[in-house]
Amino acid sequence: MGDEEKRNRAITARRQHLKSVMLQIAATELEKEESRRESEKQNYLSEHCPPLHLPGSMSEVQELCKQLHAKIDAAEEEKYDMEVRVQKSTKELEDMNQKLFDLRGKFKRPPLRRVRMSADAMLKALLGSKHKVCMDLRANLKQVKKEDTEKERDLRDVGDWRKNIEEKSGMEGRKKMFETES
Question: Counting CB atoms within 10 angstroms of each CB, which of 4, 28, 65, 145 has the fewest?
Answer without folding.
Answer: 145
